[in-house]
Amino acid sequence: HRPVFDWQRAERRHDHGTIQGRLFSAVSEMLRLRAGFGFLRADAPIEVLDDGPHALIVDVDDGNLRIVGNFAGFATDVSWGGESWTDALTGTARGSGATLGPYELLWLVP
User: Fold this and answer.
1) CA dihedral 96, 97, 103, 108 (to 10 degrees)
2) CB–CB of 71/105 below 8 Å?
3) From the CB of residue 50, how many other CB atoms can be counted at a distance below 10 Å?
4) Closest-CA residue to 81 (of 63, 103, 101, 102)
5) For residue 13, what are the contacts with CB-CB under 8 A and spacing of at least 6?
6) Which pLDDT tens digit goes with each residue over 12-58?
7) CA distance 85 to 80
8) Helix, strand or coil, per DSSP, at residue 39
């Protein structure tokens, strides 16, 4: 029921100039960050703060992490509250809202 695995395509994950390489690198970084975030444990409290038509905002472990995602194929204005956040995925300082690009995802930490 599964197709034959394309090992040649899988080897491209080491080449950052390919789609496979960029995707593998991004997922690897997310897994590395997740392993270091104790508040992403299975029993951490989660609260959905906003489930607007295009964006989703989720508070994890009483505000230790705020996940913000734009699930639209176009830019969307999103306000996630608070004063000062840092995107753990990029290290970029963020305020309380912004215009997120298509399918953009933020892992915000205070």
Assistant:
1) -10
2) no
3) 14
4) 63
5) 20, 21, 23, 24
6) 999 999 999 999 998 998 888 888 777 778 888 999 987 688 999 99
7) 10
8) helix
Through-space distance between the first and last CA atoms of the chain, rounded to whole angstroms: 45
Residue type, 31: L
Residues contacting residue 41 through CB under 8 Å, at least 6 positions apart? none
- Higher pLDDT: 66 or 82? It is 66
Tokens 């599964």 sit on residue: 2
Burial of 57 (0-12, 13-18, 19+ CB in 10 A): buried
